[in-house]
Amino acid sequence: MATSSISRAAKNPINFSARNVESQKKQTHSRYLSFSHSTISLQKLSLVKGYHISRKLHKTAVFNVLETVESRSGSVSRTRDPDNVVNTERPTILVSEKLGEAGLDLLRTFGNVECSYNLSPEELCAKISLCDALIVRSGTKVTRQVFEAAKGRLKVVGRAGVGIDNVDLQAATEFGCLVVNAPTANTIAAAEHGIALLASMARNVAQADASMKAGKWQRNKYVGVSLVGKTLAIMGFGKVGSEVARRAKGLGMHVIAHDPYAPADRARAVGVELVSFDQAISTADFISLHMPLTPTTNKIFNDETFSKMKKGVRIVNVARGGVIDEDALVRALDNGTVAQAALDVFTKEPPPNDSKLVQHENVTVTPHLGASTKEAQEGVAVEIAEAVVGALKGELSATAVNAPMVPPEVLSELAPYVTLSEKLGRLAVQLVAGGSGIQSVKVVYKSARDPDNLDTRLLRAMITKGIIEPISDSHINLVNADFTAKQKGLRISEERVVADSSSDYPIDSIQVHVSNVESKFASALTDNGNISIEGRVKYGIPHLTCVGSFGVDVSLDGNLILCRQVDQPGMIGRVGNILGERNVNVSFMSVGRTVKRTKAIMAIGVDEEPDKDTLKKIGEVSAIEEFVFLDL
Length: 632
Ligand SMILES: NC(=O)c1ccc[n+]([C@@H]2O[C@H](COP(=O)([O-])OP(=O)(O)OC[C@H]3O[C@@H](n4cnc5c(N)ncnc54)[C@H](O)[C@@H]3O)[C@@H](O)[C@H]2O)c1
Ligand SMILES: O=C(O)[C@H](O)COP(=O)(O)O
Prior knowledge:
Distance between the termini: 25 Å
Strand content: 15-25%
Radius of gyration: 31 Å
Strand order of the largest sheet: 11-10-9-12-13-14-15
Number of helices: 20
Bound molecules: nicotinamide-adenine-dinucleotide, 3-phosphoglyceric acid
Helix content: 25-40%
Largest sheet: 7 strands, parallel
Structural class: alpha/beta
């Protein structure tokens, strides 16, 4: 009665055996993947512009967030010819804007670095399919077209700076491309530039300088205003905003701030009062902008908000041009609502030559120089180079913009559960008849931890990966897991169950329940009709501990045969003999049963994949009622 499992296994649309052979034939370790610690299970060959590119999915202890790309050829070539960027084992990193030498040096130790500045959008799209990483500043627009043109090869976009409004994050996420930035190294430079603009605006430094160079001596015309005792409103009390606040207090200013997300204690520590938007703009003598450009902040300073400001207010913007409606600012300058503005950033950069704003005599301008100090540029270059190299190695980035940031200590603690999660996902999908049609999956984490201290996003992503990858050509990583699941109509819900134990381990067990599907191994179904499996980490190794209602205990490694049989003596020997006669090495066996001498489940780990004939022989053992072969 066990034949159905064999025929189902043979009909299984997931060709595991072919994949394994491929994997064994081509197994090589990438030179730049220092975190790989287990073997590669999936490889694909694709032809990119005449080069065969072997793409490997690495199972890393940490996280296989990125696919790596390696060419068949071992030769390393470095060239500036756009059509000949890649034929090398090392990743190719395209740097499209000027980056500090220290960062470039770091990148060069790891990959082939192509510096091509001032690329047109078309030139960027033409190059990008040959690149594994792209590093930009604010001048390169990384649009959806760029991700499309990358044809899946681009793994990471590094923004050498803070603002990521020039990168289409939604498109990056959809294409599974990680975006990282360098959020800290230019903070002080931007804050200093803000203070420089504030002071030079108040004392007409730029205008007076231009006037003198034009041969004039206009002491009366350029009488300024003092800063001391004036109220400065910081709009956006983040890294730059708080540094500007500190410095402005040093100049004797009264500093208030508006930031809907800033913690009050941070403001208190700097001696700054957090106030509402309206209160900030209506009471300030000076307003300094430090918020990001988002759909919410786009043109947040407009005719209406200017009209609420104190007459004669002075505005500094070193954040993003787009937060100001520039036409409205010209009107406010013309009617005296705004006495002066000092701007480092513009809606369109560079702004048109005839820009009324730039030409306005009460406006001081600089060409987006906030981050442009030698120190900041070297710092940013190193910060972004480290982030990009880390991402290409498969490490999770601390500065990921479109993926959850998982602190290293959490990551190392969760590493075995990451592997367990992927294996449970792979197992669950193989237990489904036909291997597809899964719509609803519930994951239950049993843990003694306070739910707030258990970040399961990584685990959910890996379960998603385990479920989706065997049945599609999607490559899942932490960036695109949720998006891809949604796109495929797969709903993954999570539940936390409190474990009684006060174990040191973060998680006691992980259960995966797949509802509303048929199983090719009926014993995997529980009474409520769900396919249910459970796994645990034991001594750092992932184990399968439950299938349906049957308890088992097998390490999740290699291949697995699950048999349901009448519980009687000699079964292990009989199946073991069949496998032994055909030179299939058994790595472990475990029997689980619900009631003595009725039904039992036998889980057999095998190093090699048994051929069809061997599986048929197992099916012919009279006491075996059903069985299934699973590739872990
Ligand atoms: N001119 C330059 O060269 C230069 C250099 C560095 C940073 N910047 C820009 O400065 C801005 C701030 O950079 P950062 O490093 O301080 O970033 P940050 O993320 O540390 O700070 C931004 C702050 O803005 C707040 N914010 C978000 N929405 C807001 C809103 N609607 N109203 C008020 N506050 C809001 C956030 O809560 C956050 O605290 C960014 O736009 C960045 O791109 C420009
Ligand atoms: O957001 C930033 O980091 C600054 O605007 C700096 O941009 P830049 O790298 O183009 O100078």
